[in-house]
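Quick entry between incubations.
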Amino acid sequence: MTVAIDRATGKRHGDRAPRPGLGGRFKRSYQKYWYAYAMIAPVIIVLGALVLYPLVYGLYLTLTDANSLNTARTIGVNHIDATYKFIGLDNYKDILFGPTAYDRFWSHFIWTIVWTAVCVTLHYTIGLGLALLLNQKLRGRTLYRLILILPWAVPTFVTVFGWRFMLADGGIINTVLHALHLPQPSWLEDTFWQRFAAIMVNTWCGVPFMMLSLLGGLQAIDSSLYEAAEMDGASSWQRFRYVTLPGLRSVSSTVVLLGIIWTFNQFAIIFLLFGNTAPDAQILVTWAYYLGFGQQPRDFAQSATYGILLLAILIVFTSFYRRWLNRNEQQLAI
Amino acid sequence: MSTATPPEIKSGRPVTPQVLANSRLRPVRRRGNSSSTARLVSHGILIVASLIALFPVAWLVYLSLGPDKDDYLHPGGIWGKMSLTNYSFVLEHTQFFDWLLTTAVVTLGTTLIGVLISATTGYAVSRMRFPGYKKFMWVLLVTQMFPVAVLMVPMYQILSDLQLIDTYLGLILVYCSTVVPYCAWLMKGYFDTIPFEIDEAGRVDGLSPFGTFARLIIPLAKPGLAVAAFYTFLTAFGEVAFASTFMLSDTKYTFAVGLQTFVSEHDAQRNLMAATAVLIAIPVSAFFYLVQKNLVTGLTAGGTKG
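Done. Structure below.
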């Protein structure tokens, strides 16, 4: 019973002994790694039962015409068997190229991209700005820091309702705009303003995480680099450009990737801000939810198809992003 | 600004007349001490940002004090008739405590199970390169970015087949599937910082692999476990989509769902909603403030280590 702690030896794949036969290899691998497999067994069971199996099942559903009227269900004592049938790739064809595909998919797709890009840009720039300010020697900066992370500290589903009160027709925001003789948009009804409001609320909620992560990154930059730059006569912009930004590179790439994934998948804010009242302001995630659970009859097949499409978009994006990040240096990335 | 503070002369730097002369010409500030204008601007921006961060929450607290359900439309009136009636009503006449129970069971259950599973996984992937390692890490990474919409429909079907819809266990299992992959990454990052020699020492002293893990590594990894636990707790607490769909009876709502019930098509008890929101937010935010420092370092460290 040997447990392989082979990361300590730093062995590479190249210097291996010739491989034994399949049976022997399996046996050996079992003897060597049984412990590792035992340790990850629980997670494999959980992920297998709760992620992979549903994923496969979901993939199957996308190839059918399942909805809440033809799936198996129990009403009282009567059990009704499933009657949905296999229809191949029709769902994908219908969503991507069918009639009114623009209204159902592409408009939401474009809005989701815009939403993600705008939100993450705002999160990052505002977060970086605030982090730079907080990184100075200022009086009361601990207090500022504590106040500024409040939007993250309070659960999103609570703050979104706070925003709903403020954005309502007679709410405080429109009252103030009225007092200033500015136009008062109907934030929760008009499509453009709904989108505007959603981005605003999401920015408000998302900045603290970026700010704190980037602040951590800023504090990790060696101050002698700044001294050296100053000695060489670098202006403050040049110090920012050639010391701060490169120093933040690894933190930035992580938080931007996380931010993009989180924003793209952001469910709570749009769902709670508008409910089912705003079909045009729904991003793809909430739209898929609406199709599957927010309407009658529930269209399970189309909803699942949207889910698979979303996942495909994210996986493609992430692999490109990683490749782009690793273009210069060979990181240990997978 | 032009008050020329005498430059500090550091030892090790040759002090020639030129250096002194040059430094006289230009006022030298020490790094980190910005000019007073810049400091004023910084303070100004930070104060504005703080107000923006503070206001929606403060406004919610203020509105929760107005006893009538349309008070949010004329907030000026609240000032005169402030009272805590909303709070007492919520505590006495709504299902607040049912929701509290559900939320507590689900969040704590998720935290316990999730951390346990992700700790063992994290340890395995940190210490051992077993066949299938890369594929496994890739699966963990991809699972993190599953949009809720992908698994919602099939999970709903599967859970209803297993009769787990509207049960605590069902929701706990679903939450585990969303938090475990991330926590496993997090824990792997933390275990990587614990030297391998400790494992070897334990093995030499005759501990079984599980003994090494339980008796040596777990105590050392407490800070990492704590971060994973905080993350799990906050995620499970704030989750909306699954809870809204999988919990059907109103005594089994979590807070995230229960809060939505105050506003329906027929009636909007916004005053009660605001009071409930404040009651929920206070303990969680307090908890968050206690752990936030660990949380941020843990979250980003887990992501940066490949």
